[in-house]
Design goal:
Elements (H helix, E strand, L loop, with lengths): L6 E5 L6 H4 L8 E5 L5 H5 L7 E5 H9 L4 E10 L6 E4 L14 E4 L4 H14 L7 E4 L16 E3 L6 H7 L4 E3 L5 H4 L5 E3 L4 H12 L4 E8 L1 H5 L1 H21 L11 H11 L8 H17 L9 H4 L7
Parallel strand pairs: 1-2, 1-3, 6-7, 6-9, 7-8
Antiparallel strand pairs: 3-11, 4-11, 5-9, 5-10
């Protein structure tokens, strides 16, 4: 059983958090738990089962808009472009984004990654979202304030494997962050919507200066009043872990990918830091996402960033 005196933090393990789990960062007051999908009920239980945890940005915004007593650190653990996560059946007749009109598209409507993907399709490629037949595989926590005019979500059971449906032609396209892209493209009759998705993503960044973010570190709002030093310590640990992770990524020997160096160098030239742990530096990205949430019906009105995130954090 965890030491009740320790601050318990749950998140995924990847390049930017490895140092939290492998002993490189040794903060005796903090206990890191490798878990990326804990529920809000784990945080708000009495007594709480966790003190800080990785949480979807969309859910944070929705629940903060409802007045729930949660806030987030400006720690953005999941940041990636979405063009490479849009797949189509090769027999569907879909060759360009506007061909999605009238097609059956599997999705999870409220997931942040899909909010970003729909906005890109709408604004960059002229796709009319209301003309798509959305097959929505919702989770119990998913909620929508009010769908935009013309948008209809046809429910799909949680037991359905949408990847199989795509390969079998039961749906024409799939926009879902839960898939493993390198495995999905090996399935029969499956390809990416964008033949050169990487270049589409680079162009998106050049045009918008946005790297889509999906997850943050949330905590109970009362923590800031009760233990401000703990909130600060958690933030410092994540910042230090990211700094170490970015530095260790420079070593090509840490990867078996033969052209790892090329990919890393290309990324560093264009985007040195995909998601700075700073509200000021991320304001454009975050306010754009909030606007999309309003437009797509997840919330009724914009939420101020200062109402979502703690401010004044220092490294």
């Amino acid at each position: 059983m965890a030491n009740p005196q320790k601050i318990r933090i749950a998140c995924r393990r990847h390049d930017w958090t490895d140092a939290l789990f492998d002993g490189t960062i040794n903060e005796s007051s903090l206990e890191f738990i490798e878990a990326a999908h804990m529920r809000l009920s784990n945080l708000l239980a009495d007594p709480p089962e966790i003190d800080f945890f990785e949480y979807g940005l969309g859910e944070l915004i929705q629940n903060r808009a409802k007045g729930l007593p949660i806030k987030a650190l400006p720690v953005f653990l999941r940041a990636s472009f979405r063009h490479s996560y849009i797949f189509v059946n090769t027999k569907s007749g879909i060759e360009k984004p506007k061909d999605l009109a009238g097609k059956r598209v599997g999705t999870r409507y409220t997931m942040p990654a899909n909010v970003w993907a729909r906005a890109a399709l709408q604004y960059d490629y002229g796709v009319e979202l209301a003309k798509i037949r959305w097959l929505n595989q919702a989770a119990p926590s998913d909620s929508v304030h009010k769908l935009p005019d013309g948008i209809v979500l046809e429910p799909v059971g949680r037991e359905v494997n949408l990847e199989n449906w795509l390969a079998e032609g039961k749906i024409d396209a799939l926009i879902h962050p839960g898939v493993v892209p390198t495995k999905l493209v090996t399935r029969p009759n499956v390809k990416r919507l964008f033949a050169d998705a990487a270049e589409e993503e680079r162009n998106y960044y050049r045009r918008t200066k946005i790297v889509p973010v999906m997850a943050v570190i949330a905590y109970r709002e009362e923590e800031l009043q009760k233990r401000p030093e703990a909130v600060q310590a958690v933030f410092r640990a994540f910042c230090r872990a990211k700094e170490i992770g970015l530095d260790e990524m420079q070593d090509n020997r840490r990867s078996a990918l033969l052209w790892y160096w090329e990919s890393l160098e290309n990324q560093a030239q264009l985007i040195p830091d995909p998601a700075p742990y700073s509200i000021d530096q991320m304001r454009h990205t975050l306010e754009t996402f909030i606007r999309y949430c309003v437009e797509q019906g997840l919330i009724a009105a914009p939420v101020a960033l200062e109402n979502l995130f703690v401010t004044g954090m220092t490294v």
